[in-house]
């Protein structure tokens, strides 16, 4: 069966070095905890270190091992795809993208990353598609880069890593970005990052900031701000994609519809039920959630047309993600939609891929 993986990460050397400079400066942002693991070699623990310290070091090494995979396009990545029957990866710049850099640097690195991505796709047109990065730090320049990415580089949509400067896309300053995404008719993938500074406290002590919990909470909150802020009413054709089986939001839709119906509370601007936006404006991917019961629930709740398969390469193993979509107790029609045909339609992947 044809397979298109829809949340697959990469980076480029220039962004690696820029991130290392951010790490050297330090600061309170929770993303730095993971970034230190990805981009700095952890110190070896002393011989007398307790076992829990050794386990932390091993986890640090595992994170560090991700960097060569993120930088690779032509060897290990393709070999893994071939070995597991993955036809296409939709590539996107790894979290946090360019969103922790100052404005000019962020704009320049987003353009560079998009150019490199375009080159990779031209080199392997039947194996890769791509989502364009942009710098929300300058929304008008971001909109121009979004247009260039689609019209000139022929990319397949956009990627943003939740908040920028602790602000979310419902903030009026980001209107040019939303206008561009809707006008260009291409999807905006909202990928997680660690909780913003205002909600970071409870996540720090037990390292809850990442994929274990914080990522889903952060991105789910972002989507609810778009819903209750009326963004999807102002931009009814805007298409947003979120990963990780919808960041748990499909499982809350009954309560959200009850508590968040139009006019249910002061200050809410939504004209539809939250579940209606999921059926009109929001598509989810399975990235990192290989649970057949969760998949069955989401199909029944929002429909198979609103779900796409993903691996979350290189952070999740490819073989288990492939086995999951091959073996899940769903119909052949549902499997075809989720494994590849929805991705072709939503990301406008040409048939010759």
From TrEMBL:
<keyword id="KW-0456">Lyase</keyword>
<dbReference type="InterPro" id="IPR032465">
    <property type="entry name" value="ACMSD"/>
</dbReference>
<dbReference type="GO" id="GO:0019748">
    <property type="term" value="P:secondary metabolic process"/>
</dbReference>
<dbReference type="GO" id="GO:0005829">
    <property type="term" value="C:cytosol"/>
</dbReference>
<dbReference type="InterPro" id="IPR032466">
    <property type="entry name" value="Metal_Hydrolase"/>
</dbReference>
<feature type="domain" description="Amidohydrolase-related">
    <location>
        <begin position="82"/>
        <end position="349"/>
    </location>
</feature>
<dbReference type="GO" id="GO:0016787">
    <property type="term" value="F:hydrolase activity"/>
</dbReference>
<dbReference type="Pfam" id="PF04909">
    <property type="entry name" value="Amidohydro_2"/>
</dbReference>
<dbReference type="InterPro" id="IPR006680">
    <property type="entry name" value="Amidohydro-rel"/>
</dbReference>
<dbReference type="GO" id="GO:0016831">
    <property type="term" value="F:carboxy-lyase activity"/>
</dbReference>
<protein>
    <submittedName>
        <fullName>Amidohydrolase family protein</fullName>
    </submittedName>
</protein>
